[in-house]
Amino acid sequence: MSDSTPRHDGRAVDQLRDIRITRNWLDHAEGSVLVEFGRTRVLCAASFTEGVPRWRKGSGLGWVTAEYAMLPRSTNTRSDRESVKGKIGGRTHEISRLVGRSLRSIVDMKQLGENSIVLDCDVLQADGGTRTAAITGAYVALVDAIETGRAAGHLKRTATPLTGSVSAVSVGIVGGRPVLDLDYVEDVDAETDMNVVMTGDGRFVEVQGTAEGDPFDRGLLDGLLDLAMGGCAELTRLQQAALDAPAREVQR
Amino acid sequence: MSDSTPRHDGRAVDQLRDIRITRNWLDHAEGSVLVEFGRTRVLCAASFTEGVPRWRKGSGLGWVTAEYAMLPRSTNTRSDRESVKGKIGGRTHEISRLVGRSLRSIVDMKQLGENSIVLDCDVLQADGGTRTAAITGAYVALVDAIETGRAAGHLKRTATPLTGSVSAVSVGIVGGRPVLDLDYVEDVDAETDMNVVMTGDGRFVEVQGTAEGDPFDRGLLDGLLDLAMGGCAELTRLQQAALDAPAREVQR
Amino acid sequence: MSDSTPRHDGRAVDQLRDIRITRNWLDHAEGSVLVEFGRTRVLCAASFTEGVPRWRKGSGLGWVTAEYAMLPRSTNTRSDRESVKGKIGGRTHEISRLVGRSLRSIVDMKQLGENSIVLDCDVLQADGGTRTAAITGAYVALVDAIETGRAAGHLKRTATPLTGSVSAVSVGIVGGRPVLDLDYVEDVDAETDMNVVMTGDGRFVEVQGTAEGDPFDRGLLDGLLDLAMGGCAELTRLQQAALDAPAREVQR
Amino acid sequence: MSDSTPRHDGRAVDQLRDIRITRNWLDHAEGSVLVEFGRTRVLCAASFTEGVPRWRKGSGLGWVTAEYAMLPRSTNTRSDRESVKGKIGGRTHEISRLVGRSLRSIVDMKQLGENSIVLDCDVLQADGGTRTAAITGAYVALVDAIETGRAAGHLKRTATPLTGSVSAVSVGIVGGRPVLDLDYVEDVDAETDMNVVMTGDGRFVEVQGTAEGDPFDRGLLDGLLDLAMGGCAELTRLQQAALDAPAREVQR
Amino acid sequence: MSDSTPRHDGRAVDQLRDIRITRNWLDHAEGSVLVEFGRTRVLCAASFTEGVPRWRKGSGLGWVTAEYAMLPRSTNTRSDRESVKGKIGGRTHEISRLVGRSLRSIVDMKQLGENSIVLDCDVLQADGGTRTAAITGAYVALVDAIETGRAAGHLKRTATPLTGSVSAVSVGIVGGRPVLDLDYVEDVDAETDMNVVMTGDGRFVEVQGTAEGDPFDRGLLDGLLDLAMGGCAELTRLQQAALDAPAREVQR
Amino acid sequence: MSDSTPRHDGRAVDQLRDIRITRNWLDHAEGSVLVEFGRTRVLCAASFTEGVPRWRKGSGLGWVTAEYAMLPRSTNTRSDRESVKGKIGGRTHEISRLVGRSLRSIVDMKQLGENSIVLDCDVLQADGGTRTAAITGAYVALVDAIETGRAAGHLKRTATPLTGSVSAVSVGIVGGRPVLDLDYVEDVDAETDMNVVMTGDGRFVEVQGTAEGDPFDRGLLDGLLDLAMGGCAELTRLQQAALDAPAREVQR
Fold it and tell me: What is the pTM of this model?
């Protein structure tokens, strides 16, 4: 397939889906975002609390962690609840750990001080790319939670707990060519699927590529990385725009 | 306190909060509703599938069940996920069972035939009355799921699986007087808290009253039942109005 | 069916089964009762211990909680053990919570001081009404446990931790008419099943009514409440009689 | 200590506690026994059902299994429920397996045919020797369950599923000398504790001896075995006497 | 079968399999042994840590415990992992408890001081007698762990935490005659299976005999005990020989 | 640090640790390998069974899956067993899934036919790179298991279920420069850690890179990929050498 043939939904190979970042979607959470990558819809709630887990007490360092989950009917056919099954599946574990590591990569724990932030990323509707949407939205919720914590006096006025921004996007080889930000239909067809997490200044935090079908060679790998760099740069711009809008203005 | 003193949010004692019923909030589910009782926000997804659980096979009867859960940061302070704890708490169990029984009370399982409907009620934001909002919203999602199932040919054109409608509301004794549809602030203060589930034609499906403080006498109990009857009648009208709107018109 | 037609076991509609309350059935427990409602047989053990759970320490308040369970062969056909299944079912959770709330409703936690009482209600044989028998028996065991704790010096001589007594009974609509204290055969047939918990002075602690078949109207609801008030008054008299007997006199 | 010094409760070294075997303590179970070894009280329910577990289907063989558990306040201080903890402890597992093996040792599975018997042994009160009381009582319940199954036509009239009887007793070294049927006080003091399961004709099914304190030599071991043989012979007589009484005559 | 007929693998009735005890099989553990009884291969790791569990703090006493497990493909056909099933089976529980008790029988907890030793016995390959191999190997690992703890200064130079040595062997009745150290083929055929744990000076720590087929009489029991005494004496010599070899000399 | 400065253990930046691949380490498994990357020691057992999981029956396709686990004392300090904790941790889940996907990438499920292979990778000793050692060793065990299955007649003589070979290695940025095959000491220090799985013909199956410290730029990423390609090529040669040796010749 040539690079100029449009994708099944009309997008160019290097084009993101429609991205919407709605801040303050919840009333209670210190930061919250409803993030949408096309039909994928993830609710990110950032909970800021004073204090840290026991094993970190007295260290002077903060803590950031994340939990990812899907509502049972976020998907095309209903899945059983992990709470009902009584255990969390491997995929959920994996993604929760990924989201946590990604957010921690841009937090200076010393500047955060002994405060904790939990990022709950709940997929309300899934159409591919839920983990990358979660990371991208969680960053914005994290920024708001830190400012809420600061306003409540838990952080010094001059503290700078963020060393940068972070976003994530999926890339994959579909029909033999690299494409950006796969939706569910493309994801099913992809020979290779890669999730890339990057900082706002263009460095890599995570690269996770998997050959679903045939193994891929170095050339295709380089092509995927190029696409991901462009996608993350665009997401960084959209995160910044959402954060520049007056707080609580963008409403559900 | 006299009956005419306004409540902390300005409502009359027999006044519901603002109720919003948004149909088709999800793209995949056969029926879905985002129901709001004031700031309480519950996402109800109805999944229609052919076939019934093994123990019911060959009976010619359908099956309707429900699962209720709260997102960890739906509440004022974050709660641990039940999936992470590895077990479902007693309260979750209780409410899931209540929602299921309530919905089954207006379904004719013979007319439904060997089809199953699961109602997932996930609380996105909690401000009191989440179980009554869940029942009220789930009914609307159920109606849509049945029509989706009929359109897909899983139900006869002439089947009438619904014997009526169902809604629910909380009532309680706050400051010594019965009030309708308590929010979280009132719920905390209530001496008695009662959840009432009723059919559209004014009969009772469930009455669950608990004295949180002093036990209550028969007179107060009668007063609470009166209030609940009025509240459910109003909710029935709002459910009908939502269902009368053209499908997919009311959008997020 | 007319109100004067006798029930399947010969009782009048407003007649309790034979009630037996045997105190001190166990040697170790601070209070213990084998309570029988006809063939329903529940062993209630009240464990009094100094101290309270961590979250209540330093409050000066006591704590009362309950756990309900059924032996696997208490029922007509054997049920799997919840310990073997590795989790407690929704029904068990619900009833444990109900018993605990009911008993707490007549305890003055300040007068109890920082002491804990756990009420274990284990159903040895089930024939309908196990939860109401559990509450009725647990109250008597609780009284004995408090006196044992007082004798051991954990309570002041003058402390009055009990604000009243509590008992419970089931009522239901069977064959179209309200009846009191359903056994298993009636329970299966009941269109509506209601459990009512009341204090000795005739006020309500819990009202839990469920339409198993057709929803019920206000008139039937009022009839059920009337029956329950009479039943609980009788149970209160029987509890008092058991407590008036010399301790350890009534023996297995 | 000389062999003629009486034990703390006045018994001779080779004397059992008072043994009571009450048949038909339950109304639903196919066989049931309340067995008492002094203050130790175990309820044994035998459930007879047609059919066998899946892995045994078509073999023509029956199946016998057992579950042992303690009520939370059977003991001196309350223990947490295994159902609440979500898992069964090692001791419970061990004893359940022991009871099952012991009963199976005297069942001819071919004669039982494809029927199953589950023996539930629930300790209502514990004062040492609960597992040996459980085995001794379960045998009697098993006999009754087999006759109930035969009466219901699930067994041939001429089938002889029992190859003998089985009973069990504990022995131990207390104060340097072997004693029979230890109660809790002796059990705590014992240097060595041994449980012995024997058939009615004096052969061994299980021998489980543990040095709690100092290891024991062959001479003491031989002395313990002698005592156990005498105790089991006496228990065999008591089981037979209970079974010889007219069914349902001995009542609670 | 006469006592002089050789066994299926050519051994005499009172002959052990080839026993190999390889010390220091692991680099990290304070003591470690790969013990082999013929094809049965168990890795015993002894972890020495300062401090004791919370319930033992301040007692001045040490703690020794053990965990036994089988790798999924240690057996002839693969078994499911207990970690995947989410619970430990009864057999694993039983053996872990047996190994712990056996090792504790020769430890003077006062001399050990407030230090803990955990013995992990993981069966890499199973061919009968895994629990007895585990005990026999764990003793050697325990000795090494104590010396490592002493060298690290956690024990006084003069402390003597060991009161003796411990080993274990299985005996059983196969083909009507007692034999020593059964392998898997014999274990399957055995009418009676007995595990015996003894101290180096010839006293009994545990005797666990089970009739798998016919119950056994006192004469056979005595014969089994004789055989076990001889087997444990030989194992004691082999343990000592392994410990006499220069540390780290015997290598994988 | 310059590229020619030796590493803490004297290795060059592009040098593997000593690799040992011992085939047939177990007697029962259809294929088994003890693989060592320096002091990291992983036992890989491949279990070949006829038939496939239920969801795959009748498809004509085979199935390959993997389970990874660490022995509690494989590490420097003892970890709790996942079977005792009652749940599998996220890291274990992640690695099991990775090993399974990696092996499946070179299996032609059609050629395998309706047979299943489970790869159990148990870490006996951990010193960095356990997951890459597991994949590298599991491939060799898989080859042997397939040949065992073929010899047993479960595969056609002419079936070619393997489309190639697979190996894995870790690379990372330590002291600012990319190095190959990190041991534990380096792993702890690494700013970035990447695991790369490749086929024998030099294509990528998985690329999983994580910035533990600072995010990394594209240049460093390219350098890591270069190193990994060299390492996997060498591992491929060592796998082939092990497989070329006569079966059962290389012994423990």
Answer: 0.87
